[in-house]
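Quick one: structure for this chain?
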Amino acid sequence: MATAASPVGPWHDWSAILLLGQGMPESPTVAVYNGLYYLFYHDTAQGQRYRIGAGPTGPWTEAYAFAPGWAHEVWPGRDGSHYTSFLTNYMVTISRLTWDAFYSPARPFVGGQVYHLLLPLVMR
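Got it. Here's what it folds into:
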């Protein structure tokens, strides 16, 4: 990972921020939401994943599956929302990223509204 205040640098090299046992991370991108850093990447052995960290270099949580598609790029929009572009069946799709605050920390997903079905457990 490398960062700069300008596209022309100067660049600061943070070195590798994620090492995988198998596979290779492709299309990594980092987004900030609610003070946490979300690392999105495509693991060539396990598919699209994301991890959550306290800073831009981690330490990172376990990997969570992220769908649909692969090669997600995530960026903040001018309206304060996050958006993602990704590949599905060799087509590029752009969609709004939604954050599910039911979980702590919030979980990202591609799509519209979040619904949680809670069924009461009744014992007799």
